[in-house]
Specification:
Strand content: 15-25%
Number of strands: 6
Helix content: 40-55%
Number of helices: 9
Strand order of the largest sheet: 3-2-1-6-5-4
Largest sheet: 6 strands, antiparallel
Number of domains: 2
CATH architecture of the largest domain: 2-Layer Sandwich
Distance between the termini: 39 Å
CATH superfamily of the largest domain: GAF domain
Length: 255
């Protein structure tokens, strides 16, 4: 197709690809939020959250949060909890759940920013095999109920909930990688038609062409796609050997 016949909606089409196809991870987060909200009912608690590590390896962030009052979720998403100075960080480091009433070692900034007061607290590691993906937290009883600590049954239920959360986190991580690959593919498509920009407006600005440099899983997926089925089987066997030699790695920075 010649430049003078190319549709002027080219920029809109590129925006459609990035905005529609590139927002699948938001849908996964919505489902994780629904799971956590249902889990909050099972646990009979007022607040619940799913925390994952930041790329710096020193902090946890709130990936999803469901709360007793509107607006709290947005506040906690701005909080960064130090791994070495918090109960959630201890759980993430050790892989051992912690249930406590009136916690003294609770990182205070979250309560300070939200106006909440943490009375009872349960933090459960989100595990996939031997890997610690994050931490699920369950906080306080709903308004009007006594502040009774979480009992053995609820602690056991929290482990079942985090098994489901682990599956959701894995899926979210994979979708994030796919979004990076999509962004790279759309950028490449835009560059192939860059000579048409002068007549039909500028090409939308996408992520830097080096966006995959920090996503080794994405590079591995691209390399595997280029192999034959037999070579993919061989590569999978080699990766299985490498994986068996490694220890717990924590959730990837794509999340």
């Amino acid at each position: 197709m010649k430049a003078d016949t190319f549709p002027p909606e080219w920029s809109d089409l590129l925006e459609l690809m990035t905005d529609r196809f590139g927002r699948l991870s938001d849908h996964v987060l919505d489902n994780l939020e629904a799971l956590l909200d249902q889990g909050r009912r099972v646990m009979n608690c007022a607040e619940a959250a799913l925390m994952v590590p930041e790329p710096d390896g020193d902090h946890l962030k709130f990936l999803v949060s469901v709360n007793s009052r509107p607006g709290i979720a947005e506040i906690v998403k701005q909080c960064r909890v130090p791994i070495d100075r918090s109960i959630a960080g201890c759980v993430f480091t050790t892989g051992q759940m912690i249930a406590v009433a009136n916690p003294e070692d609770f990182y205070p900034e979250v309560d300070q920013k939200t106006g909440l007061s943490t009375n009872i607290y349960l933090a459960t590691p989100v595990l996939d095999r031997e890997e610690i993906l994050g931490v699920a937290t369950f906080v306080n009883r709903p308004d009007g109920q006594p502040a009774e600590p979480f009992g053995p049954a609820e602690i056991a239920w929290s482990s079942r909930l985090t098994d489901l959360a682990a599956a959701g986190l894995r899926y979210y991580s994979r979708v994030c990688v796919q979004e990076r690959l999509l962004a790279a593919d759309v950028l490449a498509a835009a560059e192939r038609f860059a000579d048409m920009d002068s007549e039909h407006g500028s090409t939308p600005q996408f992520e830097d062409r080096d966006l995959l440099d920090s996503a080794p899983l994405a590079r591995a997926m691209l390399a595997l796609e280029r192999l034959s089925d037999n070579d993919q089987d061989l590569a999978a066997d080699l990766l299985a050997v490498l994986s068996s030699r490694g220890g717990a790695r924590g959730v990837r920075s794509e999340i």
